[in-house]
Each structure stands twice: as structure tokens, then as C-alpha cells.
């Protein structure tokens, strides 16, 4: 009788754990038009390439019902990314019709994917095993000279890297990058992700700091 009760208890625990995991899984819906119009696509897991679902470069608004999600402009969570938390986003400024991959962040899958993907990519660039929180590159597409940092820098002159950054990889945290020393002038905020180019901030960054 005892073995039977033990098996019954174990089965109940497994079912409870599965139910809890399901209850905490994130969910969001992408819409093809602004203000939640047009054909929707509801997701409950990571999608490294929206092309497979016929939804590449189509999202114009988002509703996040649960979880925190990262939306990226290229497949495999590359390029510029934005982070959206629970709520409604009727427009996607700067990301309209450019989203190619989506993943829930903060959980085990996100951290493991980052460790595997960034470790493999970064080992080719020589800063892999003990990666920095943020890495600046002097050329777009992660080329040229690089500078890895973990702490705030009031002026990049001290690293001979002032007005040189053209692409960025953010491994940890949320960073503010500014065009003048001491975090002055125009600034941009980057979440964890890979930024192959910096648009109008290209070769203009003079200071940076982690803000979260």
C-alpha cells in the first residue's frame, strides 16, 4: 500500500508543478496594425524567427497579458530589441513592422539561450568566457576595435574610445549611452540585446552608465 501511496503523491506533485508552470507562463499578442487592429498572433513561448509563422516584419501593436518580453528586429533575437511588460502598446515607435523574433525574458530559457548563444558568438571575438555587461564596437556589425565594460564611464576619452562606438552588445542590465561627457546631451537607453548599428548616435557616444 505504501508504494502505491508514494507513487500517487509523486504524480500529484508533478501535476501541481506543471500547473504552476503553466500559470506563470507569459502570453502576448502581436497585431499587424496599430491600435490592436488587423490579424493577431498570440504567443506563449519563444519564437526565434517569426517568418516561420508568417508574421515577420508585420507587428505594429502589442498586448502583453503576462510576463516580460523582448521583441527584436532580426531573427535569433539579434539587432535592436525592445522590452515590453504587462500592458497595451497601441504603437511601436521605432519598431513598427520590423520585429522578427520574440522571447520571454527573466526565466531559465532566456538566460540559458543567452549563455549559449553569446558564449559561442563572443568566443570568436576574444571576450567570451568572462563577458562584460556591455561591449562597444568601433564599426557597425560588431567589427573593429572593442571595449568591454561593467561600470559607468563618465567620459570615454579615458579609454581612447570617445565618439567611436558604432555597434553595441548589452549582456546585462539596462544602459544609458550619451553623446557628451557626464551623461549630457542626447541619450539612448539599450536593453539586453545586440545592436548592429546605432542610427543617429553612431560615433557620438561619450559616456555611459547602467541604470538598472
Give the SSE layout.
Layout: H1 2-24, E1 27-33, E2 37-43, E3 61-66, E4 69-74, E5 78-84, E6 87-89, E7 101-104, H2 108-123, E8 134-139, E9 143-149, E10 167-170, E11 175-180, E12 184-190, E13 193-195, E14 207-210
Antiparallel strand pairs: 1-2, 1-3, 3-6, 4-5, 4-7, 8-9, 8-10, 10-13, 11-12, 11-14
CATH architecture identity of the largest domain: Sandwich
* Main sheet: strands, sense, barrel: 4 strands, antiparallel
Calculate Rg over CA atoms. 20 Å
Widest sheet, order of strands: 2-1-3-6
Structural class: alpha+beta
- For the termini, the CA-CA separation is 55 Å
Structural description of this entry:
Helix content is about 20%, strand content about 35%. With about 210 residues, it is α+β, with helices and mostly antiparallel strands. The strands form four sheets. A four-stranded antiparallel beta sheet has the order 2-1-3-6, with no helix packed on it. Strands 9-8-10-13 form a four-stranded antiparallel beta sheet, with no helix packed on it. A three-stranded antiparallel beta sheet has the order 5-4-7, with no helix packed on it. Strand 11 and strand 12 form a beta hairpin.
Jot down its keywords:
212 residues, alpha+beta, Gamma-B Crystallin, domain 1, 2 domains, four-stranded antiparallel sheet, 2 helices, 18% helix, elongated
Summarize it.
By secondary structure, the chain is an alpha+beta fold. It contains 2 helices and 14 strands; from the N terminus they run αβββββββαβββββββ.
Amino acid at each position: 500500500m505504501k508504494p502505491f501511496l508514494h507513487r500517487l503523491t509523486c504524480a500529484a506533485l508533478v501535476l501541481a508543478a506543471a500547473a504552476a508552470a503553466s500559470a506563470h507562463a507569459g502570453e502576448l499578442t502581436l497585431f499587424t496594425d496599430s491600435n490592436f487592429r488587423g490579424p493577431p498572433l498570440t504567443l506563449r513561448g519563444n519564437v526565434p524567427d517569426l517568418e516561420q509563422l508568417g508574421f515577420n516584419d508585420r507587428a505594429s501593436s502589442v498586448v502583453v497579458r503576462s510576463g516580460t518580453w523582448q521583441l527584436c528586429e532580426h531573427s535569433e533575437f539579434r539587432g535592436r530589441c525592445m522590452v515590453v511588460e504587462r500592458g497595451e502598446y497601441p504603437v511601436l515607435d521605432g519598431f513598427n513592422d520590423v520585429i522578427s523574433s520574440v522571447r520571454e525574458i527573466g526565466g531559465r530559457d532566456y538566460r540559458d539561450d543567452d549563455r549559449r548563444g553569446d558564449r559561442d558568438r563572443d568566443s570568436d571575438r576574444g571576450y567570451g568566457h568572462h563577458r562584460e555587461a556591455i561591449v562597444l564596437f568601433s564599426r557597425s556589425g560588431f567589427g573593429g576595435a572593442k571595449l568591454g565594460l561593467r561600470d559607468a564611464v563618465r567620459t570615454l576619452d579615458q579609454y581612447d574610445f570617445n565618439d567611436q562606438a558604432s555597434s553595441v552588445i548589452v549582456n546585462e542590465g539596462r544602459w544609458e549611452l550619451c553623446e557628451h561627457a557626464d551623461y549630457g546631451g542626447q541619450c539612448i537607453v539599450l536593453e539586453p540585446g545586440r545592436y548592429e548599428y546605432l542610427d543617429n548616435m553612431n560615433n557620438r557616444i561619450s559616456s555611459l552608465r547602467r541604470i538598472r
